[in-house]
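forwarding from the other thread:

> can someone predict this with adenosine-5'-triphosphate?

sure thing
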Amino acid sequence: MAASAPAVEVDNICKAFGPTVALDDVSVRIAAGGVHALLGENGAGKSTFVKLLSGLLRPDSGSLKIFGEDADLASPRAAHRTGIQTAFQEMTLVSDLTVLDNMLLPYAPAGLSGLIQRKKARQSVISHLTSLGISTDVDRNVSELDLAERQKIEIARAIYRNPKILLLDEPTSTLAGKDVDWLGETIARLSAAGTSIVFITHRMPEVREFCDTLTILRNGQHIVTTSTADVTDDEVVEKIIGRSIDQTFPPKPESATAFGEPVLGVRNLKAGRKLDGVSFDLRQGEILGIAGLQGMGQLDLFHACFGMDEIAAGQTLVDGQEVWFGSPTEAMRPNMALGLLPEDRKTEGLFLKLSGGQNASLPVVQRFTRHGLIQPAKEGAAVRSAFASVQLDQRAMWTAAGAFSGGNQQKIAIAKWLVAESRILLLFDPTRGIDVGTKHELYVLMRDFVSAGGSILFHSTEIPELVHQCDRVLVLYNGRIAAELSGKSISENAIMAPALGHGNAQTEIAS
Ligand SMILES: Nc1ncnc2c1ncn2[C@@H]1O[C@H](COP(=O)(O)OP(=O)(O)OP(=O)(O)O)[C@@H](O)[C@H]1O
Ligand SMILES: [Mg+2]
């Protein structure tokens, strides 16, 4: 292998899925060593590029070299042999298996001699995880881990096999705060030891912090490869979406009197593992933010409000009346009209084998039936209009949800609650994995939704979203409300201090 050969060299690569051209004559060189960002809108072709390098997909045409040598990556094993390891966007851990079994897949030792090797492998996995600062018990089933822990194991597994090239497909869309710092440090360490890293993200600060070069794809085409130092954030955003955005967040209403009656309330609510006595009201026309570091009770709160988790104590109110939801179906009934965008869209939000259109109309399909028969015209019109609102290509109507890029799956999940004509939306980190342009559209959509009389309970792991998008923010710490902020008192610092447990559960309310 030539010393100066690029880690990855692709020439004139094309890859289509039926009529969709995912990669359109792409030629890119990724230098050896260093951390390379791969950027682009939802559906731009990033994951397809990663899957070609991982041996999961074959290109239709074009050639590929790894460290200067022609490479035929016909299978994941072939990619592994070339020194390529991947942490995938839609994680590939098997949830019924333990962390240990997953770490060893697909090379787990078997048979009698395998038993001894397995003991050794177990030790080696434990010390590997420890060296990465991961304390997860290797005998736990992956299904018991939260999304962030799973993501870290997915990454740890790729690193375990000592890759020369490490591909990270949107690892931070499921990580926040300290875990993002953890990844940054891990990447820096691997890079210093000579690993070449390709890192996909939708967040500019991470590109600045972790990456020295970047490549932008748009509509499957290669737009630019450059040093990060040579471009401004605005230039990058413009190249990603092909236009500039003047203003990321839409304006908020001037005063708190713009809000109506309470539509959703909780009183001393205790639920799930963490939520420990929370009271608040969400008012009509309001975007109420729920802030908190991971695992502070926000998930319990969203699940309890939507009838997914049993309530241990306290009350839930809709329109001032006490309600008790035995299941999400009851929360979705027309007089309640709640909708939840869940944390893990892959397992909770969508049926990947059904079309985007079917997924979108599923929660309220009875609304489109007459005498037991679905009225396709009525259903189609409602879904088409929801898809247009979230800027989703109309092909999503008949294409299986599983064939959509990660961000576009998220859009289908959002469209579902627009079709359902929900009036109270519970949005749990809705912009996770969504590209910069669509994020902006989603912020506008949220503001339009509440201006038209809806209400939104909104959790985000991106603090600036809470600051700029919410009318009021409740900060959770250890399952309780540690601070309430509104109007001009909402700032990153004002959120972070109580989120970290500082500030003596002080309540600050601006007039
Ligand atoms: N298995 C498949 N079948 C059909 N179409 C597919 C398949 N995989 C990807 N596509 C299409 O190829 C295009 C590129 O998808 P890809 O997953 O590479 O996007 P991406 O850049 O990773 O987007 P995101 O940021 O949302 O993850 C999209 O239009 C997508 O719908
Ligand atoms: Mg992707």
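The two ends are 67 Å apart (CA to CA). thats all i got for now
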